[in-house]
Amino acid sequence: MGIAEKIKDGLKTNIQNNLNKKNIKKILNIISSEPLLSAYGATFASKSDKFLNIYSIKSLQKAYSSRYPVAYGSLFLPFELFHALGLAPFLPEVIGGFTGGLGLADRTLKEASSRWYTPDLCTFHRSASGAVEMDLFPEPDFIICTNIACDAAQKTFYIDAGKFGIKDRFYLIDVPYKKNEGSIKLLAKQLENISADIAAKMNKKIDMEKFASVIDYSNKFRDWALKANGVRKKLLFYPKYFNGLNFILPFHGLAGTKEAADLYRNVYLELNEFLKVQESIFTNTGNYKPEKMFKGRKIPCVDNLKKSRKILWMHLKPYYKNSIFTMLEENNYKIVFEEISNVYWPRLDPEKPFESLAVKMLSNPLNGSIENRVNAILKMALDYGIDGAVLFAHWGCRHSNGGARILKDSLKNIGIPLLILDGDCLNKNNSSEGQISTRLQGFIEIVDSRIQD
Amino acid sequence: MITCGIDVGSVSSEAVVLDRSDEKFNISAYVIAPTGGDSQEAARNVFEEALARSGFSRQDIGSIVATGYGRLNIPFATKNITEISCHARGVINFFPDTKTVIDIGGQDSKVIKLDSKGSPADFLMNDKCAAGTGRFLEVMAKALDIKLTDFAFIFNSTREKVDISSTCTVFAESEIVSLIGHGIEKNRIVKGLVYSITDRIVSMVERIGLEEPVCMTGGVAKNAAVLKALEERLKLKISVPAEPQITGALGAALLG
């Protein structure tokens, strides 16, 4: 176990043994203080991992610090809006995911269950609701959610608003089904009105310069993400511990910040370094030789690279200890792209922030017809030349699982097998390790046999 | 070459020793035994017993392939392959044209679709509950105090069935107790149970896309009532190997 993992384990045990908001805040204050944060960052073998961890801690510390107005936000919102308004975003669903990794989900889910949250509700939301009931989350000044894809946020966040006595500061952004001129105008107006209302409640005016700066950072992030995604079209040799499924915050909660742009700049630079090593192995040039180490990773031989199988991953992953990714690695299967890493929106216009953010929301393939998602997945499949795809069918996630059949059929039409892996991203008791391992290994055997044929 | 396949299931474990010295291979010996609480020990026991019966020594065995849910926990196996690939390979040995395999084991059921070369092209597994598996039938037989071997006779001699509404094994058991309490004839309950398990499997077959010929493997393939009900529901004839319970272990030995 590396130093970073040991520190993480120590923090995890501390939080588990002393689970209350005061202790979470105390730990965040300690770990985010300098020089400790830099020392912690230095323990990571991968730059991408390092910045992801540092910025996640900073973002959480800000929300827990009581020094900024806090706004809860559902995952598919344009968080540029939060940063432009000076709100510290707090994403209950994402932090609900952290409860899985921290080994707290059993407790938060049990709490939710005893408060009448139905067991067939998605565990991200149930765990977050349990955490709210246990008073583990920072108190929000505002709660904002959207009806894009996920239905649960609208309901559970409203319950949260009632609990915190801020129903007058609860906003639901109603995103139209189709993207057209009318729907863009309608949505842009909503975003503008909500922003004006929030600003007024904070006795402020909307700062358009701040909006322009946030949009500028959002565009920078987009540029780096596109470049990183471009590298991944060829990349088979990945940094140690790199998992694209971890990068939720820069795409969402940190959208529109310098941190997200910096983070993805580092992701790009690191992946590009690995690509250069890979290319030198293929061309047998440079100083890099197979079997030697590069940044904590053994350099593969050409044969190994050529035999790599490429996988597209849909939806999310289990956040507790599991064997999925080890099994993929051991069988030389690379997740070359994830649905969540897709840059689906056009460049934003700093002069028209609300309209741009409306376009961004309406461009989300999870909004509107299932055909939008199917077309986006088919494009990813072709762009990344995948050998197979995996859809992790998270318990209770209607928006994702509802489309499983059509996704399977559509990929089959272009000759790509899809494994629908039933499980639960948070609740390990609701996932059968044996069944998941048999299904995944069976899928690997099928893909291997197709390629050999 | 001599190979061995070991299939460690949740209820039973099987080992097959295969003599592949000639072009035509020969099953030298096979063993079927309950798995019990220690899957590793069960694997060792069936392997040693099969070896003893075959007359070969440990040194004669070229490869040992483990399959089944306990496949990752057999230290003396040379490799492990899922029961999906092993059942497919085992079936193709007996019925080369098979396109769909229905495997109902102790605690899981699978439907495997085969391509034109007999390799798995797709598969479906039951959810993580025991409904639709051999364990379901065992629990119900116990609740009814009827031998599983009597199911076929009862099924064939009974006209009407009782609908079993619960798909969960635990709830179905209490439903049966309640039906008995209401004086419902046990034979009708047996018929209802057989259709209950069959309907779950038919739904999986339809989901993956039925393609003939169909073959059934696993311990439940020995239950003539389930086999008949499946044939009736799918409106086709299903092939069953002479000893369906060793299909996975045989496939493993063939892939070794």
The CATH topology annotation of the largest domain in chain B reads as Nucleotidyltransferase, domain 5
Oligomer: heterodimer
Gyration radius of chain A, rounded: 22 Å
Count structural domains of chain B.
2
CATH class categorisation of the domain at 3-205 in chain A: Alpha Beta
For the record, give the distance between the C-alpha atoms at the N and C termini of chain A, rounded to a whole number. 40 Å
Shape descriptor of chain B reads globular
> Which structural class do the helices and strands of chain B define?
alpha/beta
CATH third-level topology of the domain at 3-205 in chain A: Rossmann fold
Labels describing this entry:
heterodimer, A: 453 residues, alpha/beta, Rossmann fold, 4-stranded parallel sheet, 19 helices, B: 256 residues, Nucleotidyltransferase, domain 5, 2 domains, 5-stranded mixed sheet, 8 helices, 40% helix
Could you give a short description of this structure?
The complex is a heterodimer of chains A (453) and B (256). Chain A is of the alpha/beta class and 453 residues long.
Q: Your description of this structure?
A:
Chain A is an alpha/beta fold and 453 residues long. Chain A is 53% helix and 10% strand. Chain A has a domain of 203 residues: Rossmann fold. The longest helix of chain B is centred in the last third of the chain and has 23 residues. Chain B has two domains: 110 residues, 2-Layer Sandwich (Nucleotidyltransferase, domain 5), CATH 3.30.420; 144 residues, Nucleotidyltransferase, domain 5. Chain B has a five-stranded mixed β-sheet. Chain B has a five-stranded mixed β-sheet with strand order 8-7-6-9-10. Chains A and B meet through helix 19 of A and helix 2 and strand 8 of B.
Set out the fold topology.
The complex is a heterodimer of chains A (453) and B (256).
Chain A: H1 3-17, H2 21-31, H3 36-42, H4 47-64, E1 70-73, H5 80-84, E2 88-90, H6 92-101, H7 105-114, H8 123-133, E3 142-146, H9 152-163, E4 170-173, H10 181-201, H11 208-232, H12 258-283, E5 293-294, E6 297-298, H13 302-306, E7 309-314, H14 324-330, E8 333-338, H15 353-363, H16 370-383, E9 388-394, H17 398-401, H18 404-413, E10 418-423, H19 433-452
Chain B: E1 2-8, E2 12-19, E3 26-34, H1 39-54, E4 61-67, E5 79-80, H2 83-94, E6 100-104, E7 109-114, E8 120-125, H3 134-144, H4 151-157, H5 169-181, H6 186-208, E9 214-217, H7 224-234, E10 238-239, H8 247-255
Parallel strand pairs in B: 1-4, 4-5, 6-9, 9-10
Antiparallel strand pairs in B: 1-2, 2-3, 6-7, 7-8
Helix pairs in contact in B: 2-8, 3-5, 3-6, 6-7
